[in-house]
Amino acid sequence: MHILQPPGWAPPKGYSNGIAADGHLVFVAGQIGTDARMQLVGTGFVDQAAQALKNIVEVLKEAGARPEYLTRLTWYVTDMPAYLTNLKELGQVYREVIGAHYPAMTLVSVVALVFADAKVEIEATAVMPRNLL
What we know:
Elements: E1 2-4, E2 18-20, E3 23-32, H1 45-62, E4 70-77, H2 80-85, H3 87-97, E5 104-109, E6 120-129
Parallel strand pairs: 4-5
Antiparallel strand pairs: 1-2, 3-6, 4-6
């Protein structure tokens, strides 16, 4: 895996501009903050985001993949101010679940998600190195 950082660009904070990788692709559908019984873990943005990230890690495990193989995360949030006011807490939770690995990320504000009370949905792409297959 190789981080793509164009020369002269300021380094991004908390994500990568791009990643090049070669290996086995793993695609994770959008995950929201539900537990194994499909119940939302709480009403708070950070709690739901933490659970969505944990769900991504669990799906990756099914493929034999780890969080450091993530190449892309797309975040869909229903409340951008909640995201922005919780950045410090969110960063802390992210590092606890994913570690110090920052794939290419996109953040999109949406009107609603399928679960009415869901505040965030995160989809992921990972690439497992060929030597691990």
